[in-house]
Design goal:
alpha/beta; 26% strand; 235 residues; seven-stranded mixed sheet; two-stranded antiparallel sheet; binds S-adenosylmethionine; 31% helix
Length: 235
Amino acid sequence: MADLPGPDDDLLAEQLAYYRARAPEYDEWWERRGRFDRGPELNEAWYREVAELEAAIDALGPFGDTLELACGTGIWTRRLRPQAATLTAVDASEEMIGLNRARLGDDSIEYLTANLFGWMPPRRFDTVFFSFWLSHVPPERFEAFWGLVGRALGPGGRAVFVDNQWIESATSLGGRLGDRDSTSVERQLNDGHWYRIVKVFHEPAELAQRLGGLGWEARITATAQYFIYGEASPG
Ligand SMILES: C[S@@+](CC[C@H](N)C(=O)[O-])C[C@H]1O[C@@H](n2cnc3c(N)ncnc32)[C@H](O)[C@@H]1O
């Protein structure tokens, strides 16, 4: 069942265009290179929290049949792979999927190119994983998105997710973080082009409560500055 067209269609199209164009430079953010290099002290803090985050997600495994939404270049696909019985990775950007395929080099991974705002999962999974994706779901599509996650889960299944906290040093030098309560922000690529994208910063307690209202039981935690992560099961 496709999501209904909405007043945010142009914004979602621009968001996807941004990620398609960003694909070759995407990892600079995660690896604190180029415009994301904030100097040794801040980079160290970032890497420390990345290690904490990775350990926390590893500890949630094994993941069984796993669906990764908005898989990107594979930063987390490679982490999920050893703990997944089967792995299906979805993204709307062919460019991202191409980089993911090249990084993983694993023919057993099923890749699907699909726009998640109007996508029906092909089957049910034990785990649905998404990293740095929930913050790109517009507030008015939050409930429909969690409906999609619920439809993708089999009995006893759960969602596992990771996202950003609102902190200036996570962005690129000269970049824009956006207001704490705004739901969109402008982002620039290395070639100087600016794009408007959705960005909603979720806070663990508020997110758990909101999910509770939709019938999910969620446990969500934050690292010191940069990340939130958690798991949620349909009640
Ligand atoms: C912030 S990146 C996260 C990538 C990856 N999960 C990670 O943690 O590195 C967001 C991803 O969402 C994808 N994306 C953007 N709009 C999408 C859409 N409508 N449907 C599916 N994927 C989309 C982008 O191509 C990009 O790979």
